[in-house]
Design brief:
alpha/beta; 5 domains
């Protein structure tokens, strides 16, 4: 169980968080008494990642004659020689700061103020992750241009003379064209000149002439709505009795207008999306806003189609593919309450919702919800906190819930609702393990004979098949057959992945790319470089040889880069323009392919390698989700897992379909050692371009490590990725009992070690990656 989830229910913020550094002024000498009469002052938090006691908050003076801005007001202020945007923050300014050192606020911004719930959320995330408050605030102010009100288009309205002429008053020079203009205009609403000209069948010159005559006058047009209003009463799909019962429970939770968390678990294809959209409808009836978090919003074209079918229009979107103009319009629409339903990636948690009533976290088990750079946080956990501070309902949705979420549900912190069967006549697919020790692929190939036979039979029936391998590119490694040299990334401890279609070698960690060499970089041998192991491109090559008549589609982040490509892929598959899908993990994310009846997993053992604490849990989740793509309509589905270790508990759980027992056994294996969710973890990642500097700081942190009952520090040790993007990396892991608050320990630990500017120490509370 993560700290964020559990402590939210244990009486508020974490123990120890009250000692978090407040966002106060920094670097200002305090005098014994203020010089002169005290001025009107406010504290302003700036979106800067300042590692100071102030965390980016400074005291500013409000100029005479200007109203005192309330907390949450966005303001422009001077900082050094530039102008910055910030937020008036809560708390008292420093009265001892001399008047001569004060600077005036430049101007307040014409934007809705930041609500108290979001300000408290910024402080909470800062205290929990040990990130400066200004760094967290920067995520909530990600579109500074949205603080300026959008421009309005100019149009025309009737003047007093025009109204009189429209009513037939004499004394106005009137032509047939002018009369038509008056006939199409109303007194209440200005209109665009082009619209008036088209409807009245006149030229724009006629309008200019009427303006010169005083019959019409310029006016600003009302700003059009950025987003349509979803209709909660729009006819939606009919729910089965079991679905309707769960939907009613979610609606009741929203109607209470109070904080609570519900786990919505259900097998793949059970209709979880349609059920939680009923809760969104109830939130709309309550007049509050809804936020739906998806792990891959840019790839969720089918989800958006379901939303449109349920509510009659599209929701607001928030993801990295949006243009600057779209982001500006969306941020402003959220702040003004116009965007009633927003669907977004993890960063959408920091948007300025004025009245958030519901947060949905779909596929809550996905590691994509963890942000690993900058402010390191898990969006699932922070969604629970955000809902609590907004007095909103939170729903965590998954066919394969994380062990943290399951534990919270079992201990009564969350309400649990389950959908154990697929919707309609569809049944769960039959899962079988192919023992590669008994039926290995032919030499140089990666598909075993039984899998090839089943694909052949499936395609012959006119049905679709899928091959899954969670590896991009053609091959994960390139080796010289003469000297054994393996081509590495120059910036990372990683092999370069061959992408044969693009004729390049690429690092999937830092993005470094180079052409495939003709000669071995080590021994100079020509033509002896060979690809080792399969990626999806290599599987596609093999499939082309085995099934030459089949229409094939590769679905990977290299070939499906954004929303348009995802929508086109979904269309091709739905309209049966594709026979064989070959994909990486993106094919596991909620797709509905009604004609897909066979899934073959090329390497089911792939995720089990290494010493990751959650390797087995993640592998069973991923493979169960992939298996769930098969047999979602009338035709039964079948799943084949190619494995060299068919007796592994993960394989047996997938074959039996008893994931509950597997997760219970996984929990019991972690409990004795106080591993999450039964203990707490926090990682320190030390990195520097200078290896010796990284080693020195890591050693000093190891020597200063906290101790005591229930606390253990592992390391320092080189990280599995000991070099990443040109920086040498060392890791330390703090492990503590459930009843130990790790934030005060971390603060004290870090305060006792001097870290030079050339070295960076990242803090990762509740790590999900150990690379």
């Amino acid at each position: 169980m993560s700290d964020a989830e559990s402590r939210t229910f244990d009486g508020g913020l974490f123990e120890g968080l009250e000692s978090a550094p407040p966002a106060t002024s920094k670097g200002k000498r305090r005098s014994a008494k203020p010089a002169g009469p005290p001025s009107r002052r406010v504290r302003v938090l700036l979106p800067l990642p300042l590692e100071t006691p102030g965390g980016g908050a400074y005291d500013y003076r409000v100029p005479a004659g200007h109203p005192l801005p309330e907390p949450g007001t966005f303001v422009a202020v001077p900082l050094g020689g530039r102008e910055m945007l910030g937020v008036v923050w809560d708390g008292d300014p420093d009265p001892s700061l001399p008047e001569g050192k004060m600077r005036d606020i430049i101007t307040p911004m014409l934007a809705p103020p930041m609500k108290e719930s979001l300000r408290r959320f910024v402080e909470w995330v800062s205290a929990y992750t040990l990130a400066p408050p200004g760094a967290v605030l920067r995520m909530a102010m990600s579109v500074p241009s949205a603080l300026e009100p959008p421009g309005q288009q100019a149009g025309w309205k009737l003047s007093a003379a025009g109204l009189a002429a429209q009513g037939g008053a004499p004394g106005y020079r009137m032509t047939a064209q002018r009369r038509r203009v008056l006939d199409v205009m109303t007194a209440e609403e200005p209109r665009a000149g082009a619209d008036i000209a088209v409807e009245a069948e006149v030229s724009t010159g006629v309008l200019r002439g009427m303006a010169d005559a005083g019959l019409i006058e310029p006016a600003l047009l009302p700003r059009p709505r950025a987003f349509s209003r979803p209709d909660p009463e729009h006819p939606g799909p009919s729910l089965a009795p079991e679905q309707a019962e769960v939907a009613a429970s979610l609606r009741d939770a929203v109607a209470k207008r109070a904080f609570g968390v519900t786990l919505l678990a259900g097998v793949t294809g059970s209709g979880k999306t349609e059920v939680y959209l009923d809760a969104v409808a109830e939130c709309l009836r309550q007049g509050r806003q809804s936020l739906v978090l998806l792990p891959e919003i840019a790839l969720s074209s089918q989800w958006l189609d379901r939303f449109k079918a349920r509510f009659g229009c599209a929701p607001a979107l928030w993801h990295s593919e949006l243009s600057g103009r779209q982001r500006r319009a969306t941020w402003r629409a959220v702040a003004e309450g116009e965007a009633q339903v927003l669907v977004g990636a993890r960063s959408a948690l920091f948007l300025p919702f004025p009245d958030l009533g519901l947060i949905i976290v779909d596929e809550e088990h996905e590691t994509a919800f963890k942000q690993e750079d900058g402010v390191i946080y898990h969006a699932r956990d922070m969604a629970v906190v955000r809902a609590r501070m907004a007095g909103a309902s939170c729903v965590l949705v998954s066919a394969t819930p994380s062990l943290e979420t399951l534990t919270n549900a079992e201990q009564g912190r969350y309400t649990a609702q389950r959908l154990p069967t697929r919707h309609g006549s569809a049944g769960l697919p039959e899962v079988e393990v192919l023992d590669l020790r008994k039926v290995p692929p032919e030499r140089g190939r990666f598909l075993s004979p039984p899998l090839i036979e089943l694909i052949t039979a499936t395609l012959a029936r006119g049905e679709q098949a899928m091959l899954f391998l969670n590896r991009r590119g053609y091959a994960p490694m390139t080796l010289c057959r003469t000297c054994g040299h393996r081509i590495r990334c120059p910036n990372c401890t990683a092999w370069l992945v061959e992408h044969r279609a693009q004729r390049r070698l690429q690092c999937h960690h830092c993005g470094h790319a180079e052409p495939i060499p003709q000669f071995c970089p080590e021994c100079g041998a020509e033509g002896n470089l060979t690809a080792i192991g399969p990626g999806v491109e290599r599987v596609q090559e093999e499939a082309a040889q085995l099934f030459p008549e089949a229409r094939r589609l590769v679905m990977a982040s290299d070939t499906i880069p954004g929303p348009a490509a995802a929508a086109e892929a979904a269309r091709q598959i739905a309209e049966r323009e594709v026979d064989l899908i070959i994909g990486t993990q993106i094919v596991a994310k909620g797709w509905h392919f009604p004609h897909l009846t066979l899934v073959g997993v090329v390497d089911a053992d792939l995720g089990l390698a290494g010493g990751d604490l959650r390797a087995a849990e993640r592998t069973v989740q991923l493979l169960h989700q992939v298996a769930g793509r098969a047999g979602r309509a009338e035709s039964p589905g079948r799943v084949l897992l190619q494995s060299w270790n068919p007796d592994h508990p993960v394989m047996q759980a997938l074959v039996s379909g008893n994931l509950d027992s597997f997760m219970a056994e996984e929990a019991e294996a972690r409990r004795p050692g106080s591993w999450p969710p039964f203990g707490r973890l926090a990682a320190l990642i030390v990195s520097s371009e200078d290896e010796r500097a990284a080693d020195r700081v890591a050693r000093d942190l190891g020597l200063a490590a906290p101790g005591g009952e229930g606390v253990q520090v592992l390391g320092p040790a080189p990280a599995p990725l000991s070099m990443l993007r040109g920086r040498h990396r060392r890791r330390l892991l703090l492990k503590a009992r459930r009843d130990v608050a790790v934030q005060p320990l971390l603060r004290d630990w870090l305060s006792r070690v001097e870290v030079p500017n050339a070295v960076r120490v990242q803090v990762d509370v509740d790590p999900v990656s150990f690379l």
